[in-house]
Design a protein that fits this description.
The protein is of the alpha/beta class. The chain is built from nine helices and seven strands. It has a single domain, classed as NAD(P)-binding Rossmann-like Domain (Rossmann fold). Nicotinamide-adenine-dinucleotide binds next to helix 1 and helix 7.
Length: 245
């Protein structure tokens, strides 16, 4: 489904991001796996040896426009194009408002929102020049429902929904589609860090009767990146087993 396409997947070293990387590779794409440090990227690439020649590792500072632009240019130089950007990197927090420090709030905003802006801008400049592309952002079901602590996380995901809808309208003329995937509770390190009772309580309320697996989410990223979604832009696609409805 993605033959001859090139994708950048941020936060591609583990969890949902790693599942997206594998899904894109299985479907013929070249993939640049973006992580925060070279060693975690190298570790992820070691598990993808069978795709040698179609993968590369990158570790730009996602909030630094020059670094990101330079790195995305290297991806284009290596594979000939940059067609898909999966803005997946994210950090969560459950800190109470009373204990939240400005540093923690700023970190959440930086990774979950500022990086989406910086990476989308750098990718869109390349995509516009080459005649089109696809940007897929990562929202969350809590963008719509909030959560009982850690207000910074749902606030940034709500902002990602807004950026998705705005960029879809702005970039349509350049043949760049922009959508978001809003996962529900998904079995990754992010969820492993939550209190067990909380995960059990949320899981019990999921109509489909189970939490999501990273591959469930990656399938939505495949659909939105592919030509099957050629008329889909500005959407926030829920992939949450109908949780919290
Ligand atoms: P995870 O913690 O397993 O992975 C997060 C990824 O983001 C890692 O690869 C990490 O290296 C990367 N990352 C974090 N900070 C970074 C930084 N400063 N620079 C570069 N990369 C950085 O989490 P996950 O569950 O796989 O989450 C992936 C995305 O899905 C996130 O945006 C998250 O908010 C979203 N999400 C997850 C769930 C869930 O239940 N797991 C639910 C809704 C949304």
């Amino acid at each position: 489904m993605l033959k001859n396409k090139t994708a950048v997947v941020t936060g591609g070293t583990r969890g949902i991001g790693f599942a997206i990387v594998k899904k894109y590779l299985e479907n013929g794409a070249n993939v640049a796996v973006a992580g925060s440090r070279q060693e975690t990227v190298d570790k992820a690439l070691a598990g993808l040896a069978e795709y040698e020649g179609r993968i590369m590792g990158i570790w730009p500072d996602l909030c630094a426009p020059d670094d990101v632009a330079k790195t995305f240019a290297l991806v284009k130089e290596r594979f000939g194009s940059l067609d898909i950007l999966a803005n997946n990197a994210g950090v969560s927090s459950r800190t109470s408002l009373y204990d939240y420090t400005l540093e923690e709030f700023t970190k959440i905003v930086d990774v979950n929102l500022k990086a989406v802006f910086v990476c989308s801008q750098a990718a869109a400049r390349i995509m516009k020049e080459q005649g089109g592309g696809v940007i897929i952002n990562t929202s969350s079901m809590v963008s719509q429902y909030g959560q009982p602590a850690g207000c910074g996380y749902p606030a940034t995901k709500f902002a990602v929904d807004g950026m998705t809808k705005s960029l879809a309208r702005e970039l349509a003329k350049d043949k760049i589609r922009v959508n978001a995937v809003a996962p529900g509770v998904t079995n990754t390190d992010m969820v492993a860090a939550l209190p067990k009772e909380m995960v059990e309580r949320i899981s019990a309320g999921i109509p489909l009767g189970r939490p999501g697996e990273p591959e469930d989410i990656a399938n939505a990223y495949l659909y939105l990146a592919s030509d099957l979604a050629s008329y889909v832009t500005g959407s926030v696609l829920r992939v949450d087993g109908a949780a919290m409805t």
